[in-house]
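subagent[fold] <- orchestrator: predict structure for attached chain, return tokens only, no commentary.
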Amino acid sequence: DMLSERGFFIELAELIPGKSLDKPVVTKAEGKAPKQLESIEVAASRLATPATGEPWDDELFSDESVDEGDIDLEGFDIADAESLY
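subagent[fold] -> orchestrator:
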């Protein structure tokens, strides 16, 4: 999260073919780890206005909700856009 002045840098120091670890090894750490974010379901349950449906409702992005007349094909810089249909 570089906007909040936090960052994460990882560097592979050594790779040994045929050898594996169950967990990664931290060789150097600075500061405290930030609090982990909650799941989407838990965050949605705390909203002032309860959300309807699932967090990722497929009906919101169905084919019926898209009006192809609103899409500006020239903005996509496709030379022969009509041939796509």
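orchestrator: received. Logging for downstream: The mean pLDDT is 70. The first helix runs from residue 40 to 45.
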